[in-house]
Design goal:
Elements (H helix, E strand, L loop, with lengths): L1 H19 L1 H20 L5 H6 L1 H4 L3 H6 L1 H24 L4 H4 L2 H21 L1 H40 L8 H33 L6
Helix pairs in contact: 2-8, 2-9, 6-9, 6-10, 8-9, 9-10
């Protein structure tokens, strides 16, 4: 009897939860697709290419192992800030909503490129390095950037709707204030992800010699 009473509400709750988060789920899929594409592209990557892409994608593992904890923090935080600033600007544009989908993809591409190169060059040692040093901070920063992409997407379409007078009664100033406040919180979480990246480099990078 309990199964009959509670099955339907539970199924209904899961359905509406999926509907509310379908944009986040879609952008998460794009992030994963970027990881796969980056890992495949790593077959043609070399150390010089990785260093050139480091400022955007944070792919320089030598920096974590040789230049200390502060350099690891700066590199990680700067990489996240670039993507977050891009999302912020796209969210303030009438045409930026669709383009926000590219940001999680390229974030995943950078991670996949790094992981694929480490595995191709160093085998299992590269995989363990990724798990212990790169993955924890990257996972948190990828989550917050995907959530930021959702905020940017929604804000851009709210601006577009207000411009077209579809929702003329909406509080545009209040929405903008909420958007900027939410992005500021995301920046704080990006800083925490950089701290986590720094701690992982400090605790585990000395184990590995490349």
């Amino acid at each position: 009897m309990k199964r009959i009473v509670f099955a339907h509400p539970l199924k209904k709750q899961m359905f509406f939860g999926l509907r509310r988060n379908k944009l986040l789920f879609f952008l998460g899929l794009l992030l994963f697709a970027g990881i796969v594409f980056g890992a495949v592209s790593s077959r043609t990557a070399d150390a010089l290419l990785m260093k050139r892409l480091d400022f955007i994608f944070q792919t320089n593992f030598d920096l974590r192992t040789e230049q200390g904890w502060f350099a690891a923090f700066v590199s990680s935080f700067a990489s996240s800030v670039i993507f977050l600033l891009l999302l912020l600007l796209l969210g303030l544009s009438l045409w930026g909503g669709v383009l926000t989908a590219a940001v999680p993809f390229f974030k995943g591409y950078g991670y996949g490129l790094s992981v694929g190169y480490l595995y191709a060059a160093y085998g299992l040692k590269g995989i363990f390095y990724n798990i212990l040093v790169i993955l924890p901070g990257m996972f948190l920063s990828a989550l917050v950037l995907t959530a930021s992409a959702v905020l940017s997407w929604k804000n851009a379409f709210r601006l577009c709707a207000s411009f077209l007078r579809i929702s003329a009664g909406s509080d545009v100033h209040g929405q903008m204030r909420d958007y900027l406040t939410a992005m500021l919180r995301c920046l704080v979480v990006c800083a925490l992800a950089a701290v986590l990246d720094m701690l992982c480099a400090l605790c585990f990078s000395w184990i590995f010699q490349f």
